[in-house]
Specification:
With 287 residues, the chain is α+β, with helices and mostly antiparallel strands. The chain folds into two domains: 5-122, Aminotransferase class 4, branched-chain amino acid transferase, N-terminal domain (D-amino Acid Aminotransferase, Chain A, domain 1); 129-282, D-amino Acid Aminotransferase, Chain A, domain 2. Helix content is 28%, strand content 28%. The strands form two sheets. Strands 7, 8, 9, 10, 11, 12, 13, 14 and 15 form a nine-stranded mixed β-sheet that branches. A six-stranded antiparallel β-sheet has the order 2-1-6-5-3-4. A hairpin with a 2-residue loop joins strand 10 and strand 11 (197-200). Helix 6 crosses helix 7 (267-282). The longest helix has 16 residues, at 267-282. It is globular and about 50 Å long.
């Protein structure tokens, strides 16, 4: 589907006006944060949680801006309505100012470099359904993201790792820290499972994904518990299963990591996947 409109600083505009000045140091250097939101049947899923993380990421990198949760929410709903978007992915880009911003919030794009909020609709890419049955393949790469709790535009390391994964025919690349532990994927969170216990890398070292948050709520309702621990690459095969999560991925079991085969038939994982899908179908887009 072609989306003809985007939103800038609260104003819906024709997509032809979605331009970036060549002099923008903030775009060039990636001084910004972003979010991706799934829209289903015209409903932006877990909108409050995504906006909360967006603003938290901005605070983490000291990105000053005048945008409130109310303005961002209003802008998103207006854009979805204007584009008549039933199914899409929303991309929110909050780009920082090179100078202090005017609290009166002049919405025009000025050469002085005020903070800028761009929101656009993108056609979604859905994983092959066979991956949920058979499991996905991942590779690994040694890389640690700067400021792991902030979802920033500093994505070069993750981009190169993801490109390497695609060249290898893998679904994603898992990031390995200096201690040899798995932290997360380039765009996914990572878990192992044994019985009804979920194992996550320590939260202090990962991006706290919104889908991860939803998963943990569903898991608790289904009687699962969570344990944070370091997970070495060579230990993963000792668990009942491993999986990744994200907005687009939902819960994806892993069949292999770097060619090492993993079990994918854990009944507890399959039950959790079913419960998660049922929750998404009935939650109306909110926690």
């Amino acid at each position: 589907m072609e989306f003809k409109y985007f939103s800038r600083n609260g104003d819906v505009m024709p997509i032809e006006k979605a331009t970036v000045p060549l002099s923008s140091v903030e775009y060039s250097y990636g001084f910004g944060v972003y979010e991706s939101i799934r829209v289903t049947a015209g409903v932006p899923y877990f909108l409050r949680d995504h906006i909360e993380r967006l603003l938290g990421s901005a605070q983490e990198i000291q990105l000053a801006h005048p945008f409130t949760p109310e303005l961002i929410t209003k802008s998103i709903r207006e854009l979805i309505a204007k584009n008549e978007a039933e199914t899409c992915n929303l991309k929110i880009l909050l780009i920082g100012p090179s100078t202090s911003f005017d609290k009166a919030q002049d919405k025009s794009l000025r050469a002085g470099g005020e903070a800028m909020l761009n929101i656009l609709c993108l056609n979604p890419l859905f994983p092959d359904k066979k991956l949920y049955r058979d499991g996905a393949h991942c590779i690994t790469t040694v890389y640690e993201r700067m400021l792991p709790h902030a979802k920033t535009l500093n994505m070069l390391g993750s981009y190169l790792a993801y490109r390497k994964a695609k060249e290898a025919g893998a679904y994603d690349a898992l990031l390995i820290d200096r201690e040899g532990c798995i932290t997360e994927g380039t765009r996914t969170n990572f878990f192992c499972i044994k019985g009804k216990t979920l194992y996550s890398p320590p939260e202090a070292r990962i991006l706290l994904g919104v889908t991860r948050k939803v998963l943990l709520k569903v898991a608790a309702q289904e009687g699962f518990t969570l344990e944070e621990r370091d997970i070495k690459l060579d230990e993963v095969a000792s668990y009942d299963a491993a999986f990744i999560t994200s907005t687009s991925t939902k819960i994806m079991p892993l069949r292999s990591i770097d060619g090492t085969e993993l079990p994918v038939s854990s009944p507890e994982l399959r039950a959790l996947m079913t419960a998660f899908d049922h929750f998404l179908d009935g939650c109306g887009g909110s926690l």
